[in-house]
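Protein modeling request. Please complete all fields; requests missing the sequence field cannot be processed.
Requester role: graduate student
Desired output: 3D structure, C-alpha cell encoding
Chains: 1
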Amino acid sequence: NSRGAASLLKDSIPITEFSASGPFEGHDLLRRGFTSVKNELLPSHPLELSEKNFQLNQDKTNFDSLRNIQGLHAPLKLQMEFRAVKQVQRLPFLHSSNIALDTLRGNDECISFEDILNDASQSEVMGEPHMMMEYKLGLL
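Delivered output (140 residues):
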C-alpha cells in the first residue's frame, strides 16, 4: 500500500534531530578518530606560526629567485612537478616518507629532526584500514 508508506514517512522524525549538538556533542570515534588536543591549542610563541610555515615561505622565496633568474616558466614547471608528486600517496593508514617531494626540494641528502624522531609506529594516524578507506572514498 503506497499511501500507507507515504504517511509513515511523513510522520517519522528524522534521525538528525536525535543527534546532540553544541558543546555536549558526542565525538564519533569510528569516523573521525581520536581527538587531538594539540590541534585545538593556540600557538604558545609568536615564532611558532613562522616555524610551521617555514617550508612554504622558503618555497616562495625560491620560486621568486628562480623567476628572476630563469623566467616565468621555471617556477611554473617546478610547481607542476610538486603538485604531481603530492598527488601520489599511499593508503591513508600507511606512513609515507614522501621521498620524491624531498628530492625535488633538495632535502633528500639532509638529516633533519623529522628523520630521526618521526617514528611511524608512534603515529596518531594509525587506525582501522577499512574504515579509513571508506571515509576517504565518501562511503561513510
